[in-house]
């Protein structure tokens, strides 16, 4: 690897401890996107103890890790979807520092079991490495749309 410029960053400790021993120490491209996807899955799978409005009003902290429960909000109300999107964006900004320019759009669907579809658009900017990423958020799943190279 002599002479090779590496644009990624050292893999997060959680990734290094939870994967096989042949995982790269420096993440870039598809490995970096998968690491971010896994971190988002953990974040969106954790519930913060606050209501959405309280969550948005308070500064983020370790005690508020996760996203607030949105069971009291409705898919048909634009204002409720905007509040949900803002709370998700705030969580990502606070707890996934590798992403910037974060935008989440939530739209209603015709699916009765999953009445909302969300799309997270962001950029990864680290030490000369810059790539846009798009994730589709579907209930308990976080899917990367188009793997970076």
From TrEMBL:
SUPFAM superfamilies: gpW/gp25-like. Residues 31-127 form the IraD/Gp25-like domain. Signal peptide: none annotated. It comes from the Bacteria. InterPro entries: IraD/Gp25-like, T6SS_TssE1-like, TssE1-like. This is IraD/Gp25-like domain-containing protein. It comes from Oceanibaculum pacificum.
